[in-house]
Specification:
Blueprint (H helix, E strand, L loop, with lengths): L13 H13 L8 E4 L13 H16 L7 H7 L3 H7 L1 H9 L7 H14 L15 H12 L3 E9 H12 L6 E12 L5 E10 L6 H10 L6 E4 L5 H8 L6 E8 L6 E2 L12 H8 L2 E4 H4 L9
Parallel strand pairs: 1-2, 1-5, 2-3, 5-6, 6-8
Antiparallel strand pairs: 3-4, 6-7
Helix pairs in contact: 3-4, 6-8
């Protein structure tokens, strides 16, 4: 394939040239070492004005409040339902996330997956005027397709909930559930009424949120293969991108810069569970990452809606 035919949604320029050079060089790498990991929120799909998983949880919360209005009196839920940003900040993301996770406590993995897929089948993005399932980034989908043509193993390493992303990863990105690493919920193992083993969700985390150094540790413990390409968009992805960059040549650390207010949103993404000392875009420029300008490098952002 002519390099000019690669990645049609990427505009000509230094970024597309860097991607083309990496893809060509990677063909000389042993297949077992051709590994690429992508963050999800803000890297493979839109994360503004709110995370898709948060919208899923809020949808479940509103249903629960309709059934039992007293549920909405809990401080975490009251803050969310009223969109009280000051109260949300005061309560803290971790406490709110655990409260929302409790809405699905007791479900089997299959029941949770069905709920997530049902939501994704009907949800609409609140501002972009398109189905939520279509807020994936077309240029990143093209990059994943080119990596697969070169026998790369492609995985998702996200700060989001593992089971939520697993429910949609194969359908949206062609990534199987076993190649998704995220924030883990705990499970209780018991037996059903007929004595058969059954596992059910708890409302507690297993370990810590999958951000920062946890991403690297969890890649090693859960997948066991180091990436030579890593893509992210926030400070929560820094260590993963640094790890890929230090893998030797060829390697690529790819950072998505959300600088397109007209077609998406304009902001600098940040980690959700720890404070950063430097904007991630400054880190990327300083460390020599390939920083993708959404405004300049992408000819289109989202795929056409059928």
């Amino acid at each position: 394939m002519d390099r000019n035919d690669l990645l049609p949604s990427w505009r000509p320029g230094s970024t597309r040239e860097a991607l083309g050079a990496f893809l060509a060089a990677a063909e000389e790498v042993p297949v077992v070492d051709r590994v690429a990991y992508f963050d999800n929120d803000g890297t493979l799909w839109c994360e503004r004005p709110s995370y898709v998983q948060q919208d899923f949880f809020l949808d479940a919360l509103r249903k629960r409040v309709t059934e039992d209005p007293s549920t909405g009196e809990r401080a975490e839920f009251a803050a969310l339902l009223s969109d009280d940003q000051a109260a949300i900040a005061g309560i803290g993301l971790e406490r709110i996330a655990l409260a929302l996770a409790g809405l699905f406590e007791g479900l089997t993995p299959q029941e949770f997956t069905s709920a997530a897929r049902e939501f994704m089948g009907r949800a609409a993005h609140p501002t972009l005027g398109r189905p939520t399932r279509s807020v994936t980034y077309q240029p990143m989908s093209e990059l994943i397709a080119e990596l697969r043509r070169r026998d790369f193993t492609v995985g998702i390493v996200t700060g989001g909930g593992t089971e939520f992303v697993r429910a949609i990863s194969d359908d949206l990105y062609g990534v199987p559930a076993e190649l998704v690493v995220g924030t883990l919920i705990g499970y209780d193992v018991g037996r059903d009424g007929e004595g058969r083993p059954v596992i059910r969700r708890t409302s507690g985390l297993l370990g810590v949120a999958n951000e920062g150094s946890a991403k690297v540790a969890n890649i090693q413990t859960q997948l066991g293969r180091r990436p030579i390409l890593a893509a992210g968009n926030s400070g929560g992805d820094r260590e993963m991108l640094e790890w890929a960059q230090s893998a030797g040549s060829p390697s690529l650390a790819l950072l998505i810069d959300h600088d397109d207010a007209e077609r998406e949103f304009h902001y600098t993404s940040s980690a959700q569970t720890f404070a950063e000392t430097e904007p991630i875009t400054d880190v990327g420029a300083r460390l020599g990452w390939t920083v993708v300008s959404m405004a300049r490098d992408w000819d289109v952002v989202f795929p056409p809606v059928a």
